[in-house]
Specification:
By secondary structure, the protein is α+β, with helices and mostly antiparallel strands. The chain contains 26 helices and 20 strands. The chain has 6 domains: 186 residues, Hypothetical protein af1432 (Orthogonal Bundle), CATH 1.10.3210; 138 residues, Beta Polymerase, domain 2 (2-Layer Sandwich); 123 residues, Roll (Ubiquitin-like (UB roll)); 66 residues, no CATH class; 86 residues, no CATH class; 77 residues, ACT domain (Alpha-Beta Plaits, 2-Layer Sandwich), CATH 3.30.70.260. The radius of gyration is 47 Å and the shape is elongated.
Length: 714
């Protein structure tokens, strides 16, 4: 391989190429690498030439070939990238730089597998030619791997098997893939490789004779049909594929059909079928081995007729029949062999779409014969509206161009979106309005609880750009508003029920009482204040009163009255459980009276001049001013309990509120806890309306020191 061969080859498919420019690149590379040799002992430039040559097999453009010749110059010589830029322009410099960066890939060392693929993908998104050069470079390195130390051989072979062969496969570059796999196997499974190679070698003379015989037979028979194949020959053996069939499928070497395989290229589609007919009439077809990919091309445009027959001397032989156009497509990578030869191969849909796109473009490239247009279209058409970014695990996510980390977070999972608080791109914290770029690796920083911010919906801030994320954020707030109102409503209602002494209230019954379909709607209405507490209290108390007002009871602890009993209570003129007319003096309504707070029996009403009261034995704290009053007919007794931090004048204040409402306080008692100084004042109020009760409770509630004022029921 010398430069002239290369130039001739370029000229054969690209007559417009500037061959002088290619030659200058060669001369620069040759001079720069001059003192260096490869591990094989050959001058370094042989490597550059081989890489360029491989790319001419793919009919690549002038810049790519030039970049291939120069690809190791900046890294391995003293000539800097700037010189290449000056001499050969930006395109070439970018390609060389891309290849140099890709050479940093080291599987399982400083980078993970996913990270390597990410870099590869990034390079591809930037310019697919970088990857094509890299593959050609790797191919030659594999071809000369024998010259390296065994440990290096194994590492590089493994890397090739795990990254570069699958990549070549995905790109549909069948020949490169096959060679990379066979060479890798040679270093990874030297014994197995050798075994298969030997089997092929032992067989080789036989096979060649056999193939030659078969071809001769076929040619003669085809000539009778006036068909003269353009090409007819054996197919290159794929050792790794044979290895897989033997190891994985447990087949004998002799049972593998493609050990004997021929490929026939004829001028027209019609001829393909004629040839097929002739073959099937000559030899018995093996059932299940016939595929018509001409009538039914594979998704990636691959076309061919495939069959296997029991050939001469009873040996199985595989046959492929196609036109030159079909052959071209297959060789250029349209044939996605990996689809059916790699069962269980993981296929990323986004990546696959991309590759299908590339295949179509490659096919299209056959027509336009200018790879530069192909590459440009790759850059513009595929990557214009979309960006391809990576999860921390290396999964590819396709996003609309302009998407932000929040968009990405919502794309991954709604919960991740809701809890997104920050983002790292390629390991660095970025602002949330950062625009994702192809190749970015995004890590979303989340909080454990909480939701999105309303700011996210502000278009001016540019934090969210996808319709999907916006929709999810709106949905969140809608749910959130309702959930908050329900929670709030529940708290309000529980508090009120507690206050009204209706703790046991059943929410469902209440919802029904207020004609709501369900409890949540009811609570939401309360939370939103569509339903006022006043309305609820009144309706509840009225409803409860209609049932049967429970008789209030005296609380058990001994009451202790504060020292200033000048408060005036009003009493009804009849006995009830909590107030008794004293039998010693039998006061009548209208008599001046005074109340005596008994231990456990409520208030006894005495005449002011009763000797039992006037005596010094009476604890003055237990006396309470009392007056008669005509009772409201509608009044009903309600037991109210007030909890407060004890203070002087508390009872006085409470009595004042009650009096101001013209409500009778028929009983009252107070106890103060020794340790917590909490006074519990219990009183029976003659309430005439629900409104009145809530009003009184509200007022007492607002008194200083009062913790709680509520109705108690038995
Ligand atoms: Mn190289």
């Amino acid at each position: 391989m010398d430069i002239q061969t290369l130039l001739d080859k370029i000229k054969s498919y690209n007559p417009e190429a500037n061959l002088d420019r290619v030659r200058r690149a060669y001369e620069l590379a040759n001079a720069a690498h001059a003192p260096q040799t490869r591990s094989t002992g050959e001058p370094y430039i042989t490597h550059s030439l081989r890489v360029a040559h491989t790319l001419t097999d793919l009919y690549l453009d002038e810049d790519t070939i030039i970049a291939a010749l120069l690809h190791d110059v900046p890294e391995d010589t003293t000539v800097p990238l700037e010189t290449l830029h000056k001499e050969f322009g930006e395109q070439v410099a970018k390609l060389v730089d891309g290849v140099t960066k890709l050479s940093g890939l080291r599987l399982g060392l400083e980078q993970t597998h996913a990270e390597s693929l990410r870099k590869m993908f990034m390079a591809m998104a930037e310019d697919a030619r970088v990857v094509l050069i890299k593959l050609a470079d790797r191919l030659h390195n594999m071809q000369t791997l024998f010259a390296l130390r065994p440990d290096k051989q194994r590492r590089i072979a493994r890397e090739t098997m795990e990254i570069f062969a699958p990549l070549a496969n995905r790109l549909g570059m069948y020949n490169i893939r096959r060679e990379l796999e066979d060479l890798s196997l040679k270093y990874l499974e030297p014994d197995k490789h050798k075994e298969i190679e030997n089997l092929l070698l032992e067989d080789q003379a036989d096979q060649q004779t056999y193939i030659a015989e078969t071809i001769k037979l076929l040619r003669d028979r085809l000539a009778e049909e006036k068909i003269f194949p353009l090409e007819i020959g054996g197919r290159p053996k794929h050792i790794y594929s044979i290895y897989n069939k033997m190891i994985r499928k447990g087949r004998d070497f002799d049972q593998i059909y493609d050990i004997r395989a021929i490929r026939i290229i004829v001028a027209s589609v019609r001829d393909c079928y004629v040839v097929l007919g002739v073959i099937h009439s000559l030899w018995t077809p093996i059932p299940g081995e016939f595929d018509d990919y001409i009538a039914k091309p594979k998704e990636n445009m691959y076309q061919s007729l495939h069959t296997a027959v029991i050939g001469p001397r009873g040996k199985p032989i595989e046959v492929q029949i196609r036109t030159p156009e079909m052959h071209h497509i297959a060789e250029f990578g349209i044939a996605a062999h990996w689809r059916y030869k790699e069962p269980g191969a993981r296929v990323d849909p986004a990546f696959e779409n991309k590759i299908n796109w590339m295949r179509q473009l490659i096919e299209w490239q056959q027509d336009i014969a200018d790879a530069r247009v192909f590459v440009d279209s790759l850059k513009t058409d595929i990557f214009q509206d979309q960006v391809y970014v990576f999860t921390p695990k290396g999964d590819i996510i396709e996003m609309a161009a302009g998407a932000t980390p929040i968009d990405f977070a919502y794309h991954v999972h709604t919960e991740i979106g809701n809890r997104c608080r920050g983002a790292k791109v390629n390991g660095k914290i970025v602002p949330l309005d950062y625009r994702l770029k192809t190749g970015d690796r995004i890590e979303i920083l989340t909080t454990k609880k909480g939701g999105p911010s309303r700011d996210w919906l502000n278009p001016g801030l540019g934090l969210v750009r996808t319709v999907r994320a916006r929709g999810k954020i709106r949905q969140y707030f809608k749910h959130q508003a309702r959930a908050e109102a329900i929670t709030e409503g529940r708290v309000i209602l529980e508090k009120e029920l507690h206050r009204l002494g209706l703790d046991q209230g059943n929410f469902e019954e209440l919802a029904k009482l207020f004609e709501f379909k369900n409890v949540d709607d009811f609570l939401e209405a309360i939370g939103h204040e569509d339903l006022s507490l006043q309305t609820i209290s009144v309706r509840l108390l009225d409803a409860e009163r209609e049932k049967a007002p429970p008789a209030p009871e005296m609380p058990p602890p001994a009451p202790i009255m504060p020292k200033a009993p000048e408060v005036t209570l009003t009493v009804k003129g009849v006995d009830n459980l909590l107030q008794h007319v004293a039998h010693c003096c039998n006061p009548l309504p209208g008599d001046p009276v005074i109340g005596y707070i008994t231990r456990g029996r409520g208030i006894t009403i005495h005449r002011r001049d009763c000797r039992n009261i006037v005596t010094e034995d009476v604890e003055s704290e237990r006396l309470i001013a009392i007056d008669w009053e005509k009772t409201d007919e509608r009044a009903y007794p309600v037991l109210v309990q007030v909890r407060a931090f004890d203070r002087a004048g508390l009872i006085h204040d409470i009595s004042g509120i009650v009096s101001a409402e013209h409500v009778n306080m028929s009983t009252a008692s107070a106890v103060t806890g020794r340790s917590d100084h909490i006074a519990i004042i219990t009183a029976t109020l003659e309430i005439s309306s629900a409104d009145q009760l809530t009003r009184i409770l509200n007022k007492i509630d607002r008194l200083p020191n009062v913790v709680e004022a509520r109705r108690v029921t038995s």
